[in-house]
Amino acid sequence: xxxxxxxxxxxxxxxxxxxxxxxxxxxxxxxxxxxxxxxxxxxxxxxxxxxxxxxxxxxxxxxxxxxxxxxxxxxxxxxxxxxxxxxxxxxxxxxxxxxxxxxxxxxxxxxxxxxxxxxxxxxxxxxxxxxxxxxxxxxxxxxxxxxxxxxxxxxxxxxxxxxxxxxxxxxxxxxxxxxxxxxxxxxxxxxxxxxxxxxxxxxxxxxxxxxxxxxxxxxxxxxxxxxxxxxxxxxxxxxxxxxxxxxxxxxxxxxxxxxxxxxxxxxx
Amino acid sequence: xxxxxxxxxxxxxxxxxxxxxxxxxxxxxxxxxxxxxxxxxxxxxxxxxxxxxxxxxxxxxxxxxxxxxxxxxxxxxxxxxxxxxxxxxxxxxxxxxxxxxxxxxxxxxxxxxxxxxxxxxxxxxxxxxxxxxxxxxxxxxxxxxxxxxxxxxxxxxxxxxxxxxxxxxxxxxxxxxxxxxxxxxxxxxxxxxxxxxxxxxxxxxxxxxxxxxxxxxxxxxxxxxxxxxxxxxxxxxxxxxxxxxxxxxxxxxxxxxxxxxxxxxxxxxxxxxxxxxxxxxxxxxxxxxxxxxxxxxxxxxxxxxxxxxxxxxxxxxxxxxxxxxxxxxxxxxxxxxxxxxxxxxxxxxxxxxxxxxxxxxxxxxxxxxxxxxxxxxxxxxxxxxxxxxxxxxxxxxxxxxxxxxxxxxxxxxxxxxxxxxxxxxxxxxxxxxxxxxxxxxxxxxxxxxxxxxxxxxxxxxxxxxxxxxxxxxxxxxxxxxxxxxxxxxxxxxxxxxxxxxxxxxxxxxxxxxxxxxxxxxxxxxxxxxxxxxxxxxxxxxxxxxxxxxxxxxxxxxxxxxxxxxxxxxxxxxxxxxxxxxxxxxxxxxxxxxxxxxxxxxxxxxxxxxxxxxxxxxxxxxxxxxxxxxxxxxxxxxxxxxxxxxxxx
Lengths: 268, 648
Known about the structure:
The complex is a heterodimer of chains A (268) and B (648).
Chain A: E1 7-15, H1 24-38, E2 54-56, E3 65-75, H2 88-93, E4 102-108, H3 115-118, E5 119-129, H4 133-145, E6 150-155, E7 158-163, E8 168-173, E9 180-185, H5 193-200, E10 205-218, E11 221-223, H6 237-244
Parallel strand pairs in A: 3-10
Antiparallel strand pairs in A: 1-3, 1-4, 2-3, 5-9, 5-10, 6-7, 8-9, 10-11
Chain B: H1 5-11, E1 38-44, H2 48-51, H3 55-66, E2 70-76, H4 80-88, E3 107-111, H5 118-127, E4 143-147, E5 163-165, H6 172-184, H7 194-202, E6 207-208, E7 213-218, E8 221-227, E9 236-237, E10 265-268, E11 270-271, H8 281-285, E12 290-291, H9 294-308, E13 312-316, H10 326-335, E14 344-346, H11 354-363, E15 370-376, H12 380-385, H13 392-404, E16 409-416, H14 423-441, E17 448-455, H15 472-486, E18 492-496, H16 499-510, H17 515-524, H18 538-547, H19 552-555, E19 571-572, H20 577-588
Parallel strand pairs in B: 1-2, 1-3, 3-4, 4-5, 9-19, 10-13, 13-14, 15-16, 16-17, 17-18
Antiparallel strand pairs in B: 5-6, 7-8, 11-12
Helix pairs in contact in B: 5-17, 6-7, 11-13, 13-14, 14-15, 15-16, 17-18
């Protein structure tokens, strides 16, 4: 049930470099401040303490990088001077810290599920320290052959044993750098990169980790919640996304003759 | 010098809260280090989340980086796990901007806002790779300076800090930069004469160079602290900027990437306070009152919110409700359509009166959960001793207003261990709390009142600097007494601070130069982050005192005579010693003094000594409240009060 005229906006962004050491909550706060500065007409919840209707996708573990993070938010009907959706990646990136780059934006339909529900798996690229490539290859094969992979994890302050094997969809070594590439399911419970490396056994320790893609599955097909713009499309993610995914609705049209004043408020 | 980031990023995955060490704040600058530019490292000797919001540090950061002949980066104390990882990987202390080693800087400038961080200062000097003692540093070593409220007794850190900067730093920081630039200019490090630099620094008003003074002792007690070099002043006076309007800083407040305390925009509305609370060092050493023009406050709020994206602004000062025209200022911010009505304002220090609650109601239209007041003393007699002139009527009307307007929790701050304190004064805290609960019950069932009690530690340059503080055992007895009494009232909760920490704070606050060796021992035994209750260890301090042949009774628990030499006698905050002694005698006689902002001067020395005046927009005191505001103070008790009432 959306109040009259509200729009749903989905944004795709990166988290790379130094900023990877911030937490999921930290990133949420960065976004809150950037969105306020952007003056986008954010919709707020009703109730005693109204809060902006922003929902983040799957939490990224602190220390991991990502090329594909998402957030959904609701906007009130557009007003004069609002930044066109197609210009949002550049405008918002300028308001966000280095390493957080908005790569795509699009309005989405009310029928779309939430990111938390819809994303079924994530691709990861993981650096593993402490073992040589041949050894790593052997361990990977053993892991894939195993019917169960119990690892100890902390949940709600208690150590519990969890089988992560069902969540490992693919696992292989990249060449030539010998990183792991894995597709890990998010349901019923996500596997963290650290858990995967722990299952490799000592002395393997996790190095850098990067979430490269998140996948939505529907009717046997899989696609990303939003595709990044191709080089040369001048940031017009909406057009591109609409070609790729019919579930992405049209972006709003720029105000006739109006320039986006909010778009210049970058870091001086 | 090369960035340490590649080494740092290897250890960050192994430490807690790694975002403390990455920098990247909005407003951070990345200056080029070059000859002819004095490189400052501004250090806060506590964790990033405590240190980042520090306004003094942010102000100097901007002022220095605006100069063509200076640059500044920042560093904070690495938490215990990070320190261990750094030492294991041989990573020195680094700046958070460019992750440059401390060795890339010419000046290490510490902000000292609390005494318990002193061991962290030592730890950071050591992590920087500098010789711990100033006497061991040479021409190639950075100069260690320190400023902030604590340096009004610099003696406990005299061994470690080359120069202390007293008072407001806005102007003097440029003068220090000039001296540094001239000293560094063109000369190879090995030929630089450090003594020459120290003498030049000592020539600046407000700069105290401890190596140029000798402390002498008689019968185990300090006798005098005197200059040992020609041309060095026998007394060093603080710096005071006369007009806050000249310094609209920080203009680009740092917005961190991770959570910090006070995660909001801060705009300083005035500096200094003349309420005259006798326990309050800040109120004594920052006089006179200098208000920022309201128009400039509004502009800084407007720009700051636009710049930062914050949805909360704190109007900071020692008593923000005293700002002339505070209601108008608050209302204009809250009602500004530019903020869409979603910006909240906080006044960190509320005055205790119903009027102030009205202003608070204006601010907190939603989320009325808790409101905090600080009566500080449990009885009117106690409050006249400390000159916190809040009548019971003030408090009850404030609490009544709070509960009737929807707040559900009231928190009250008190001190225990105050001069002349009797058990009935301590029990008075419970009585006030119980009455507040009773008032709240008129409006709501589940109201709670929390009385938070802290052990009083006397501070230099206050009338209580001669007072012997309570022992840990005595504080514990009083807390127990209070808890027992409070148990009779449902809805009244007593919270208290660890009394043991008050001893260490007392040692660092009023110790003389010999305390340096004690602080060094505590640090060598691993006693860092003593301001964190989980890290505080009284036994380290006791062992260090014993090893140095010093006694806690001598430093902390003993009343001083009027003629005793104090470790900070050669340091001046402008306050006449006669004034402070007179105020101490008045305190003992329960005689109160008025706020001199709106009444005739009683010549404390803070203005007259420097040719300054209060800068206060309103010629009359704010409405409401009894502190010099026209209410009849004597209704609280029969204690004589020397207060000239003035009808606004």
